[in-house]
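input
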Amino acid sequence: MSNLSVADKVILEAVLGMSGGYVLDFTNDSFAEFFRDLSIDVYDDERYPGSGGSKAHRLRALWRNGTDEEVAMTLRALIDYIEAKRLTGLLSYEINEASMERVRGVAAGLTVAQPAGAAPAGVSFTTEATVTANKIQIEIHADIYAHINRYLATEDYFHAVEESYKVVREALREKTGSEKATDAFKPENQPAIFGHAPTSPAEKDFFEGVKYLNMAIQFLRNEKSHTLATSLERNLALHYISLASLSYDLITRYVSDELIAKIEDLIAKERQSYSASRFYRVFEGGRWLSSVELPGELASPSVRRVLKEKWLMEADFTRSFDHSNIVLMRLEVVADALSLADVDSLLDLPTVDANGYSQEAGTVAFLEYMKEKYPETISPKADDRIGCDR
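output
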């Protein structure tokens, strides 16, 4: 999994002309050959799983599942391709040098050397950590903090630690059917935890490391479960809790293909159940959400964050009005995970199809919903968009 940000992807999609499923002027054959020359089979669904077989979908699958090195190499090759087309006068639309330089910068950022002993490329965390001098401040994962904050408030550190470990073990049970780390991390369960089987020796080592981290939590928790509740020193307790937070982070940041398909199918069917005129009435104010029974897994902030990243990356307002509606319905499902930058990125996406017609639909109603529920996500640019359509 590469470390491309949502902002990076918005820029890349615009520069590479990815609206409507296209990538630059490639045909299906020339697109496959371009990547074969880079020793990448971009149509390998096992290596680069993703929905859809269009050129744009396959490139997005590479961005999502490829390594930083693979993505950086392909971005540099695509820039070389664009420059060659410009020199020969064969480029069908203008790409300014500033955009080209931005793509080069994205590629360069992905190839910064990792320090010795660092986690494999592509591993990122949903919680924040900062360093000031020799002090590290670590954000406790939201799911764990929501469960233990009452114990922290009363300085009941024994139960704060005990309950944080229970959250980790429950997450393993939900994903694999077993709380026991040695069983939960069996090879057949790795796709449920990490989204896929290991694709390299480095990734295999990383998966093993996460397993042993969970085994350590299991033994630490067992020690406490067989002793009476006693006073636990604050600093030690916070170290234990940060360990639980890291472990939980690493086993919940992936969402299974089955769950994604279930949610996406549910949303698509809900959209199809409405006529166009009725849809916009129920979409206003997010009223449609009250008639949908969403999977319980969506209660997890981690799941919502993962889905947000996926759906933002795949957002396309150039296909049809109905598809644009579905894009915005998906994002309303994870609205609390959206940031101001996320909402602004949607306003920068192309909206015109290959025939010159805008297929954007429902954006203003979506922005009004976000302004009502999460006003901190609305920038002056978004406010202007709302005002222009009133």
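quick obs: Residues 201-225 form the longest helix (25 residues).
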